[in-house]
Design goal:
By secondary structure, the protein is α+β, with helices and mostly antiparallel strands. Helix content is about 30%, strand content about 35%. A hairpin with a 2-residue loop joins β8 and β9.
């Protein structure tokens, strides 16, 4: 009997939800080297300032930092290398048509494991303006305040 974890996220891009409106999400596989998988299992990844691009009908992940595996040898990987994402051709065609619309981009939201395979959750995102970010912060603060009040009343 195997126990399933609710969330096996290795790295999340929390800044993405602050800086972008996420319109749609897509799960993609990722091509990794051996030491990269070991680093991911240790949680040594950072998605801040990373993005994805479509080149020649293939999707690539840029600026995703998977740190060097501490127990690796001279065959260790380069932390900021460009990594290929695995998507079906039909999914890529849909993405290209949506990206060609003004202001849309591909942002990785999190890296996680599904049945032993590393996956990347990519979001089709549109950039927020400064006033949108302020509105988001106000909403979060008001939710926290309401939760605080409910918690105090229940005591």
């Amino acid at each position: 009997m195997t126990e399933k974890k609710a969330d096996t996220a290795v790295a999340t891009n929390r800044k993405a939800y602050h800086d972008y409106f996420i319109e749609e999400t897509i799960e993609a596989g990722i091509v990794l080297q051996g030491t990269e998988v070991k680093s991911l299992r240790m949680g040594l990844a950072n998605l801040t300032d990373s993005y994805a691009l479509v080149k020649k009908n293939e999707v690539f992940l840029f600026n995703a930092n998977i740190s060097v595996y501490p127990f690796g040898n001279i065959m260790n990987h380069e932390p900021l290398r460009t990594r290929k994402l695995l998507l079906h051709a039909e999914e890529i065609r849909k993405l290209v048509s949506k990206i060609n619309q003004k202001g849309f981009t591909l942002i990785p939201l999190k890296i996680y494991f599904v049945r032993g395979k590393a996956k990347v959750l990519i979001g089709l995102a549109k950039g927020k303006k400064a006033f949108d970010k302020r509105d988001t912060i106000k909403e979060k603060e008001s939710k926290r305040e309401v939760e605080r009040m409910v918690k105090e009343r229940s005591r």
